[in-house]
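REQUEST ID: PR-0412
SUBMITTED BY: lab tech R.K.
PRIORITY: routine
TASK: structure prediction, single protein chain
INPUT:
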Amino acid sequence: MIKKKDKLKEKAKEICKRLDERYGTHKVPYLSHSSAFELLIATILSAQCTDARVNMVTPHLFAKYRDVHAFAIADRNELEKDIHSIGFYHNKAKNIIACAKMLESEYGGAVPSDMDSLLKLPGVGRKTANVIRGNIFGEPSIVVDTHVKRVSKRLGLTDSDDPTKAEFELMEVLPKENWIRYNIQVMELGRTICKAPNAKCSECYLSDICDSFEDK
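STATUS: complete
OUTPUT:
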């Protein structure tokens, strides 16, 4: 008798195979960056904001504030004006400055690679930490954003609305070699086909193995 977890792993393997066939195996994140620190700042800015909007703001931002020290000594009111269009700019500006200061004082200005150190940084949660660990340091990591949570739940790979719980449930069933690119692939699927609230199930290449489609 095949255990439920084993069946779920086989399903996840097939899903990853189709995602690779559809989107390729590249691991380039949607947020534009040229360094670990720039990706860290961009990911902090992306909370409750589209990547497209963040990418419109960061070229000017990174030209003005060229390194960790420049952000650490930034005037908060001025930084708020620089990121005003992104939303939640008061809190994000505060966190970015505090994050840069902690990087300088505790990590020699370098972005750390381990989860515990990343989570100590102001404005950094598991999502941001996993973006850095996966895309900068190549550490197998699953990033659970709104797209990943929605699509994974519809597919039946997790039943949780809690991002952290969903992350660990996905870690149990997804092939480890797919963890980093799964987020990037599922973001594309979620933006184009598996939308919220109106999924285009008739156009989806995963409909035959999707729990939500079977329920219709």
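NOTES: The chain has two domains: 4-28+142-214, 36-135.
REVIEWED BY: pending
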